[in-house]
Design goal:
Structural class: alpha/beta
Bound molecules: zinc ion
Number of strands: 8
Strand order of the largest sheet: 1-2-3-4-5-6-7-8
Order of helices and strands: EHEHEHHEHEHEHEHEHH
Oligomer: single chain
Helix content: 40-55%
Largest sheet: 8 strands, parallel
Radius of gyration: 17 Å
Distance between the termini: 28 Å
Strand content: 15-25%
């Protein structure tokens, strides 16, 4: 298990984590332990994302038990085509809509497009599902979190066609400078994950460097994408300080300044914990 980083002096939010997911061969996450370990290094709030039906049900339970945890629910862009093929998509939508209405579920997400994992067969369902989730977020007045893998143009186009919710977050931002500019111009939030610390991520750091503080969020996407020097290990919210410190360096701001901005942005997007 990675050693905890030095604590941040001003606390931040991990705005996208999957406490319901354990990587293959690893023990399930102990939520209470994860919350305590994160708080000990200044990550005192988090947003748990459940993006299939079992995950969404888990999320609705966890947000009631843990004051540090708010939630998001959706059908992942790789999940919607599977459910459609099984004839189970409409029932799943109904359940997601019901769970999303919970007062501590503040996010519809992650939704969006994934052209990496899902082949051309699934694109139609993915796009319909993305549009359905955008509409749900607007109907319920929740924030929207977007998963975009190899689908930048279509993600931006569909958001424009549907009209993005007032609070729209590009989770695990993976775009380049040009995409960052468009997102900033449209008022979206860019959430950076451990990927921004990877050696080969110069393009991502260029995008980060031009992002104004008031558009920035940070996340783990745990258990995936652990930041350097723990790349490949199981990720957990307590590793967020590593990503935050790297980001502050790229932005040329003091770490507490960035933490203050991330904390304020998170409360603006998701409401108070
Ligand atoms: Zn995720």
């Amino acid at each position: 298990m990675p050693t905890p980083p030095a604590p941040l002096s001003i606390s931040v939010v991990d705005n996208h984590t999957h406490l319901d997911i354990a990587r293959d061969g690893e023990a399930p996450v102990d939520v209470a332990e994860a919350v305590v370990a994160a708080a000990a290094v200044g990550v005192d709030r988090m947003v748990q994302i459940g993006c299939d039906l079992p995950g969404a049900r888990f999320t609705a339970e966890v947000v009631e038990k843990h004051p540090a945890v708010l939630g998001g629910v959706a059908l992942h862009p790789n999940e919607a085509p599977r459910l459609a093929a099984a004839g189970a998509l409409d029932a799943a939508y109904e359940e997601i809509a019901a769970l999303a209405a919970h007062p501590r579920i503040r996010v519809v997400g992650e939704t969006g497009l994934d052209y990496f994992r899902t082949g051309p067969d699934g694109v139609g369902v993915q796009q319909d599902s993305f549009r359905w989730h955008i509409d749900l977020a607007k109907r319920l007045g929740k924030a929207l979190q977007i998963h975009d893998r190899d689908a930048h143009e279509d993600v931006l186009r569909i958001l424009e066609e549907e009209g993005a919710p007032e609070r729209t977050v590009l989770h695990c931002f993976s775009g380049d400078l040009a995409m960052a500019r468009i997102c900033i111009e449209r008022g979206y939030y860019l959430s950076f994950a451990g990927t921004v610390t990877f050696k080969n991520a110069a393009g991502l750091r260029d995008a980060l460097a031009i992002t104004p503080l008031e558009h920035l969020l940070v996340e783990t996407d745990a258990p995936y994408l652990a930041p350097v020097p723990w790349r490949g290990a199981a990720n957990s919210p307590y590793l967020v300080p590593l990503t935050v410190r790297l980001m502050a360096g790229v932005l040329g701001v003091a770490v507490p300044t960035l933490c203050e901005a991330i904390s304020a942005n998170s409360e603006r997007v998701y409401g108070p914990w």
